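Bench notes, afternoon.
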Amino acid sequence: QVQLVESGGELVQPGGSLTLSCATSGFTFKNYYMSWYRQAPGKERELAAGISPGGGSTKYVDSVKGRFTISRDNAKNMLYLQMNSLKPEDTAVYYCKSTYADYWGQGTQVTVSS
C-alpha cells in the first residue's frame, strides 16, 4: 500500500533553515507529480510547492517563493523541501502528497520561533 513518511521538522529560529524529507513506497514514484502541503494552527491545509514527475517543473505558493526549494530523487523514491529564511508564519505541519492516491502521511511539525 501507499506510504508517505515525512521527517525533518523541528523548532527553528526565524531566519533559519530546514530540510524536510518524504520517504515513499507502494507506487511508482517517478511517474507521479508530488507536492508539499502545510497546515498552520487554525487554518486550512494549503499547497506550498509542487514538482513534476521528472523534476523539471516546479511551482510555489507566493508566500514561499525564493525561500523554499522542492526537489526529488527518483532513484531513491524521495521528496525534499529545502526551507530557508524561515518566518514564524511558516509554522505548520508539513505533508507530502502524490497524485497517485488521496493519501496523507502523518506530517512533520515545523515551528519557527525565537
